[in-house]
Structure to design on (706 residues):
């Protein structure tokens, strides 16, 4: 990455220089308006929640452990506005999106781990099994267009921070194991500590499951090592390396008669094997004049081999190599002007990715290579218009993406193209705090998604389609509050208008191609109420979402040629209603009984864009949990889908033997999971969360008060 060397050199020079009277990089915040690390592109300049003009969900390590969740998607699925379903038919690879987007064909949610984008470069998908929950310190979910995070963040951002030893923390060791239904076995171990100004952490985990359906086994192994250096309060450098390997089999979809005869059967047999290597370097340096410089450099390489892909009528195999690297630099400053606090950030981002794939089958072979060079500039300002009462946020990002791609298959001669996309995306918002317990906000934001590698290349005979980028403009208003000490409430209303959304259509050629739709829109509301007492806790959430076509179009589907889709028809796989409920009881210190439930409304099935077919029925699932902490030991028992609800989370309308047929991905029935873990060197009941990095506005307010 030669063109990034000057940037890296500047970052290292700053990190090694002395900075007299520089602001520290950490500040404690115990209020309910805790700093939001993902309010800016890099977490060096978090903004308190009362100045974030949008919905925010923050899940810290203590909440993760109390939840009993086995995976990150299971944890995120308890947020009412998150849309999740199973497209593959195994326990490890659910599909997740937000705000009326259904990840079809590409997810509209951008996922970052320690500031590094982990959406795959070929098709934007997220391999959740490669983010072990045992190594996650903090999760932030910011729904709505995340302007500063660049392309692909149409519906929001999920920002994950991995665990790290705190300053001066002694050596700590943790190990655990779990066993559950469908022969689920899980084991993990970690150790961390500090030596003077250096800190270190090592985490390994493996999970296996036979699967509740035939040929749906999974095996995931992950290992991460992180080393840090904090010689003083003004400098922070961390380097991490993750190695992961997985082997997945997929249950796939089955027809209605097959579902009725035996929901555990598997007609198609798909198996994938992948290996991941990811390196992340994070650097932060507090500078004179209240400036702070942060940088993130990363490399991510993943190889996926599909030795078996057996459909109902086809047999193939494929191999993909995906590599991405990038650098992000951000400069921040906090201060006061005319007795009003402000926070300013500006930065630049550059990256390069390459996705090479080969597919082999009887009668049809193909090869594709796509290179993507990206660069961006971004800036954001948050300013108090009225001290402590009214604040304004304004941000902008300019993106440039250049594709160089080629494709060849059995029907198409070598096909080479170069394409460039340019986009400027603005963001504005206001926060009004009538008193310290309430925050009201309104915002307007834009985001875009450039076509992915696979969308640009041909689908069989013919040429690839030159596609426009997807653009979304979203308006949102909402509130957050703590009316009394034990209660927390949040609500939001939003509307998002999209143009040029990319959709698969079979009108052209035997294989079809991807096309831009004129208009689509999403609108809805999200609300949650939480109460936390000495013995009881409860949280209720509801999301109402409408996802509609905004213009009349004619589409060709294998099951239904010349579908006429009218303005106002509902997009598939977006439930109009989704509700969540969590209740916990603490009968004695160290004991916790919990129950959580999710209800999902009916959905239009994929392939029925004209809304002519019966909808996929809604469903409700309930879970029970028990946790007991006795000294260094932590025991957990969890029952899943305790009512043994039989439902399908995804359905497709396609054709089989020349006639329309519905295909389903069934969900598992009742199950359980038991875990035991042991910790040495920490008091699990009294551990404090990692202190958030510098909250620029809090520092500015402190300066004003002095």
């Amino acid at each position: 990455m030669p063109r990034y060397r000057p940037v890296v050199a500047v970052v290292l020079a700053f990190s090694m220089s002395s900075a007299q009277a520089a602001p520290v990089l950490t500040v404690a915040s115990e209020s309910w308006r805790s700093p939001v690390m993902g309010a800016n592109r890099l977490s060096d300049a978090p903004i308190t929640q009362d100045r974030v003009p949008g919905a925010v969900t923050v899940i810290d390590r203590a909440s993760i452990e109390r939840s009993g969740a086995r995976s990150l998607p299971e944890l995120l699925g308890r947020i009412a506005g998150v849309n999740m379903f199973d497209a593959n038919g195994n326990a490890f690879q659910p599909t997740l999106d937000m705000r009326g987007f259904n990840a079809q064909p590409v997810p509209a949610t951008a996922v970052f781990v320690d500031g590094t984008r982990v959406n795959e470069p070929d098709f934007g998908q997220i391999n959740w099994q490669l983010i072990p929950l045992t190594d996650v310190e903090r999760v932030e979910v910011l729904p709505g267009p995340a302007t500063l995070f660049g392309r692909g963040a149409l519906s929001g951002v999920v920002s994950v921070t991995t665990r790290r030893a705190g300053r001066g923390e002694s050596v700590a060791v943790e190990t655990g194991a779990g066993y559950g239904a469908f022969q689920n076995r899980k084991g993990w171990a970690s150790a961390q500590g500090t030596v003077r100004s250096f800190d270190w952490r090592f985490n390994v985990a493996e999970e296996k499951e036979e699967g509740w359906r035939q040929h749906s086994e999974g095996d995931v192994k992950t290992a991460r090592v992180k080393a840090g250096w904090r010689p003083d309060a003004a400098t922070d450098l961390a380097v991490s390396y993750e190695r992961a390997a997985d082997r997945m089999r997929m249950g796939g979809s089955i027809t209605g008669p097959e579902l009725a005869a035996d929901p555990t059967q598997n007609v198609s047999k798909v198996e994938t094997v992948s290996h991941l290597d990811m390196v992340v370097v994070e650097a932060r340096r507090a500078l004179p004049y209240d400036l702070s410089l942060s940088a993130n450099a990363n490399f991510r390489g993943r190889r996926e081999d599909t030795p078996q892909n057996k459909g109902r009528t086809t047999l193939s195999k494929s191999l993909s190599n995906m590599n991405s690297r990038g650098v992000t630099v951000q400069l921040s400053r906090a201060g006061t002007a005319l007795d009003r606090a402000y926070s300013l950030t500006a930065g630049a981002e550059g990256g390069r990715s390459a996705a090479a794939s080969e597919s082999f089958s009887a009668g049809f072979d193909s090869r594709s290579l796509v290179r993507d060079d990206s660069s961006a500039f971004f800036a954001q300002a948050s300013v108090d218009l009225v001290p402590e009462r009214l604040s304004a946020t304004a941000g902008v990002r300019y993106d440039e993406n250049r594709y160089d791609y080629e494709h060849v298959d059995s029907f198409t001669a070598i096909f080479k193209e170069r394409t460039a996309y340019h986009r400027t995306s603005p963001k504005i918002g206001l926060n009004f705090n009538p008193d310290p317990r309430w925050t009201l906000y309104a915002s307007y934001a834009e985001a875009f998604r450039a076509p992915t590698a696979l969308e640009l290349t041909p689908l069989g005979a013919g040429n690839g389609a030159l596609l426009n980028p997807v653009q979304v403009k979203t308006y949102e208003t909402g509130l957050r509050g703590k009316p009394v000490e034990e209660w927390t409430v949040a609500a939001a209303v939003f509307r998002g208008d999209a143009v040029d959304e990319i959709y698969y259509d079979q009108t052209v050629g035997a294989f079809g191609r991807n096309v831009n739709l004129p208009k689509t829109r999403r609108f809805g509301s999200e609300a949650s109420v939480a109460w936390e007492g000495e013995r009881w806790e409860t949280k209720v959430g509801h999301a109402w979402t409408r996802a509609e076509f905004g213009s009349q179009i004619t589409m060709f589907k294998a099951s239904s040629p010349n579908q006429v889709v009218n303005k106002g028809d509902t997009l598939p796989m977006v439930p109009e209603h989704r509700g969540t409920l969590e209740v916990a009881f603490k009968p004695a210190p160290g004991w916790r009984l919990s129950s959580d439930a999710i209800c999902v409304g009916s959905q239009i099935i994929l392939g029925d864009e004209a809304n002519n077919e019966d909808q996929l029925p809604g469903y409700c699932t309930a879970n029970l949990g028990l946790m007991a902490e006795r000294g260094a030991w932590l025991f957990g028992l969890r029952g899943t889908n305790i009512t043994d609800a039989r439902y399908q989370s995804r359905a497709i309308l396609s054709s089989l033997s020349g006639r329309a047929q519905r295909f389903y991905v069934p969900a598992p029935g009742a199950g359980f999971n038991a875990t035991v873990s042991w910790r040495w060197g920490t008091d699990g009941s009294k551990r404090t969360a990692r202190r958030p990095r510098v909250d620029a506005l809090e520092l500015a307010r402190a300066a004003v008060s002095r």
